[in-house]
Amino acid sequence: MVSFKTTKISSWWMAIRPHTLPAAISPVIVAWSITYQQKSFSLLPALAAMFSALMIQIISNLVNDVMDFNKGADTEQRQGFKRVTQSGLLSQKEVWGGVVLAIILAFLAGSYLIWLRGYWVLLIGVISILSSIAYTAGPFPLAYNGFGDLFVLIFFGFVNLCGSVFVIMSTIPSISWVMAFNMGALITAILVVNNIRDIESDRKAGRRNIPIVYGLKVAFWEYRALIILPYILLLFTAIFSRQFFLLMPFLSFPFAIQLLRDLPKTKGAQLNKILGQTAQLVLRYGVLLAIGFLLS
Predict the structure, then answer these.
(1) What is the pTM of this model?
(2) What architecture is domain 23-295?
(3) What is the spatial distance between Cα 194 and Cα 215, in angstroms, rounded to a whole number?
(4) Other Cβ atoms within 10 Å of 24 Cβ, number
(5) What is the pLDDT of residues 162-220, one digit of tens each?
(6) Tens digits of per-residue pLDDT, 218-235?
(7) Other CB atoms within 10 Å distance of the CB of residue 192
(8) What is the Cβ-side half-sphere exposure of residue 211, based on CA atoms within 13 angstroms?
(9) Interior CA angle at 211 toward 208 and 216, to 5°?
């Protein structure tokens, strides 16, 4: 019995893909620091925003696990991390049950935010949950029709960061929009590595994304742009706002440069390391940016 429970717990841990959670956490951490700088930080809505972001990320991961298996994108030949549906660790019914539970938990946290800030939060929440499901499910799955990168940029950048700022302080300072793009771009870079790694299995499953449609060279340039632009925009933002502590994320720049050098030379399952390191870059950039706001 203990062995069964341990296996189930580890399977669910695998299913939620903890290595992807920095994509949900990092923009909210930056949002917290912005509201703190504005002297409008409030703990309960901040925690509710973080929890909601995590639940929406988990919903997307679980739906992706099932739907990629059903569409043939996840096979024994895939190079990525093990998927619980494809490997038989969890049944489709169990994974869909996890989706329902995560939706319920997201709505419970969201109910407090709706009560606090009004029905705009309900609209944002519903759109976020539907989008996380529609990423790989439904009649027009975004990831299979060339909109995956745009979805990640908009949701993880603008919706996650600016939405978190709004529910904490009921307004969105203009600097939030620049930071939202920066975080969204870095998080989209994680997806680019994922798409490069899975190009063959995705092509067989009928996915359309930049590596498949335009080739690997264009995908490498997309990755470079998504990594470099957040540093360039941050430099101009710090200069024009005279908040020079916002340059703290440049401490992570050598790590970013190393990723830019390594990606074109890496193939197959070794890209999992680059994917994980890109997620680490997102977290480092986000934490350092948050420290910069706190010091400014």
Answers:
(1) 0.89
(2) Orthogonal Bundle (1.10)
(3) 14
(4) 23
(5) 999 999 999 999 999 999 999 999 999 999 999 999 888 888 878 888 999 899 999 99
(6) 999 999 999 999 999 999
(7) 26
(8) 22
(9) 165
